[in-house]
Amino acid sequence: MASNWDDLSDRTMSAAVMVVIGASADYAGGLWFQMTVVFATAVMIWELWSMIAPSRTTAAALLAALSAAVLSAQLAEPNARVVLLFLVVPVLGAVLLKKLQAAFALYALVIMVAGFALVQFRNDFGALWILWLLLVVIASDVLGYFAGRTFGGPKFWPAISPKKTWSGTIAGWVGAGCVGLLFAMLTDASMILVPLSMLLSFAGQLGDIAESAIKRRTGIKDSSTLIPGHGGLLDRFDALLGVALVMFIVTLLFSLPGVVF
Length: 261
Prior knowledge:
about 260 residues, mainly alpha, two-stranded antiparallel ribbon
């Protein structure tokens, strides 16, 4: 009989990989961080296309290369004159695809904007706040996993992600809130970091569900085999995409004194 903990080693290794890669790039900053994000973004665009149209490998590679070029151009000159470049890869991919065009366009746009946002956060706010975002994702995932496996209960969204439970979802919010509290206590940030961290946890969970929905529609288990035994970059960083996107929107809409500004 399968155990509730059969995938514990896989998830532990995945978390370790995410921490090492993310923390190293974050610490290096500058061009190193930008190159890491551009590379990851290109790979995730490739994985997204490959899930929907796995036989069209040339198109997947071309879209990945184009996404890297577009994101690099956006980062080199981040202003309104190049904002429409965000739409190049999503629109082109949707035109070329024969199915799930809207899903590709929307998710590709999220990937592009999230990649841009992460580099901007690192440049504007520093390494500590990228670490905060990563820890919010990790705490939410780890506590959600253990609570879901331990307590079980009603499913969060069984039609899309049958393993996710409300107990795990809420535990993820609590874990993220604890990360926010820790950062608020150890830095000059205000306590608004606690509810903000919980909001980002929910955003990360929705990012995970969004990828799960695409995988269910395509019948694909993992976004790729890039990380042996653990799937692809989208499988590892889908939650971070949701977190980065929502945090980017928050920075555009609100002024949060004492948090990261």
